[in-house]
Amino acid sequence: MHWNQLTEALAGYLCVVVVITLHEFGHAWMAWRCGDPTAKSLGRVSLNPVAHIDPIGTVALPLIAIFLSLAGYAQVAGFIIGWGKPVPVNYTNLRNVDRDSLLIAMAGPAMNVVLTVVVGIVVKVSTVGGWMPIANAGTTLAIISMLLFFFNLIPVPPLDGSHILRFITRMRWETFFQLSQFGFIAVIILIQLPAVRWYLNSCTFYSVNSYWDVLKISVP
Q1: 116-137 pLDDT, tens per residue?
Q2: Residue 24 and residue 108 in contact, taking contact as beta carbons nearer than 8 Å
């Protein structure tokens, strides 16, 4: 294990924490705006990472995956996924359950897009100024942010994309919650499929590269 590899991996992990924080903040803020004060009362409408970090999903498992990859066990690490602390939502407080639940679900991925847009501007300024370490870090942050965006659009409960599926199919809430109980296992299986990994990688790099082309950014 080389020191540079470890440093890059830990820097990537910090980017993951930033992305998860903004993603969960988006859910919490939208729930509050839609009439449910549950998340706000728990301090979740905050940009403080501590409010959104799950000890297992955000700390233990991602760090284990990093060290397994660096030790040469990338295939084993591929079975490990992380997550932020779920934002609690009391659907009975929402003014329009069908509409507002969809807005809350989409607010997380929307924050990923907003972050990428802002980071792109920072990367552009950094490349013009010759501050390449910042530009490289920003590019990594944008890639991770868009990867989480497309990952969460997978229509499997409890991922955010499942709320789009529920809204379109008019699925009953009882059925949705029942599927959510087993959805986590389905997600772990899905991300091992080559087609799903191709979808995530292709969409992620295409979106970031396209945006970088618009900004005329060239980062090695």
Answers
A1: 999 999 999 999 999 998 999 9
A2: yes
The candidate with the shortest Cα–Cα distance to 187, out of 117, 31, 44, 83, is 83
- Ordered by start, the domain boundaries in the chain are 3-214
Nearest to 74 by CA among 83, 84, 66: 66
Structure tokens at 60: 């233990």
In the chain the first and final C-alpha atoms are separated, in Å, by 24
Side-chain half-sphere CA neighbours of 128 within 13 A: 8
Token duo for residue 116: 């990428």
pTM for the structure as a whole: 0.91
More confident residue, 180 or 33: 33
User: ∠ at Cα 113 (168, 131), nearest 5°?
Assistant: 165
Could you check whether the bond before residue 158 is cis, i.e. omega within 30 degrees of 0?
Answer: yes
